[in-house]
């Protein structure tokens, strides 16, 4: 019996839409993050191109220079993912919530089923195109109130770094765009690939806690104790049943003081942070080992496979078995959009915790 030929390798194409008044830093984020991942054979997993709403040529930035964009709007028809970075010159989009004729014509090139994402105020473009109606979204905290007034049909959450609503993802300002792009790499190809990109970019692979631009956290007084040592201690003992008082004892604090200080520094409660770290540990073990589900659950500190299943289903929208199947056999596959069930619902990342 002859073997069926393997499908031809094709990298996932990311098209970045450069608009007048764009922020050069944010335009560069998708190229930096998606331009790094490679498969086991050294092939780039993503093909990143930039386009304008006009024919190839210069596009103004908010800095003292313009950039030359080599592709016109027809490049959007080739995209698997379209990313819209922030711009300070959105005109009618920002003022009235409607697309300009050239933007509307550009968006008409986008194929149904294309994944869409925005960084900061790029969300105005997605909203004006009617792509966020009835859906959750976020943007820079300073624009959130006005954004909600302009688009009352959108569920605006200003207290998160980014929101994954399946085929549409939105992020808060500037650095949150890095978090969003790393999340998409993690969703497409797993934790190991995303962590490698983060290391090469010298950024955290996953940011915990609230949106830094929204929560006013003063610089810690160097004379005041922090919770750093307790976190390091807990990370070495995720497989053990940890109590809040155990962590507080590492810093010689009362539970109440430790909980308040922890939330000030990290943005979430110690319990939420521990769950986040255990989910990340489970993901790593599911991707990189052949341990049984019970063994993974024990090593990650969930105790039972059922408990781990519930936590991963909540955090990732996929079962441990489904996650392992995708990223043990599918890592490096072109055009992967994530494990079955992942991203099909709405996930808010970096939510500010209001519970102890």
TrEMBL record:
Segments of skewed composition (Gly residues): 334-344
Classification via PROSITE patterns: HTH_ARAC_FAMILY_2 (PS01124)
UniProt region (Disordered), positions on chain: 334-356
Pfam families noted in UniProt: DJ-1_PfpI, HTH_18
A GO MF label: sequence-specific DNA binding
SMART domains found in the cross-reference section: HTH_ARAC
UniProt keywords, alphabetically: Transcription, Transcription regulation
Gene3D superfamilies: 3.40.50.880, Homeodomain-like
Keyword flag Lipoprotein: no
Keyword Ribosomal protein in annotation: no
HTH araC/xylS-type domain ranges (all copies): 228-326
Name this protein carries in UniProt: GlxA family transcriptional regulator
């Amino acid at each position: 019996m002859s073997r069926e030929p393997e499908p031809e390798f094709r990298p996932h194409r990311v098209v970045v839409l450069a608009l007048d008044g764009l922020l050069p830093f944010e335009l560069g984020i998708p190229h930096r993050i998606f331009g790094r991942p490679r498969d086991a054979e050294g092939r780039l997993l993503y093909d990143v191109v930039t386009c304008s709403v006009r024919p190839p040529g210069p596009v103004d930035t908010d800095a003292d220079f313009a950039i030359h964009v080599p592709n016109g709007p027809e490049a959007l028809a080739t995209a698997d993912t379209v990313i819209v970075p922030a711009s300070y010159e959105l005109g009618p989009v920002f003022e009235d919530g409607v697309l300009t004729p050239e933007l509307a014509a550009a968006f008409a090139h986008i194929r149904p089923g294309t994944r869409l994402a925005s960084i900061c105020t790029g969300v105005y473009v997605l909203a004006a195109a009617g792509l966020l109606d009835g859906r959750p979204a976020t943007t820079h905290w300073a624009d959130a109130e006005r954004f909600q007034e302009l688009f009352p049909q959108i569920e605006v959450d200003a207290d998160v770094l980014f929101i994954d609503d399946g085929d549409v993802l939105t992020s808060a300002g500037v650095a949150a765009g890095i978090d969003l792009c790393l999340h998409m790499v993690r969703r497409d190809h797993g934790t190991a690939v995303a962590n490698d990109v983060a290391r090469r970019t010298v950024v955290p692979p996953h940011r915990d806690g609230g949106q830094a631009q929204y929560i006013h956290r003063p610089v810690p007084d160097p004379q005041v104790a922090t919770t750093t040592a307790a976190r390091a201690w807990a990370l070495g003992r995720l497989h053990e049943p940890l109590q809040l008082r155990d962590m507080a004892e590492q810093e010689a604090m009362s539970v109440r003081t430790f909980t308040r200080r922890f939330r000030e520094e990290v943005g979430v409660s110690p319990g939420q942070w521990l769950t986040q770290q255990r989910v990340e540990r489970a993901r790593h073990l599911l991707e990189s080992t052949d341990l049984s589900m019970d063994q993974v659950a024990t090593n990650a500190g969930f105790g039972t496979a059922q408990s781990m299943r519930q936590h991963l289903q909540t955090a990732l929208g996929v079962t441990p078995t489904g996650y392992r199947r995708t990223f043990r056999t599918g890592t490096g596959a072109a055009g992967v959009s994530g494990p079955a069930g992942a991203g099909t619902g709405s996930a808010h990342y970096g939510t500010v915790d209001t519970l102890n």
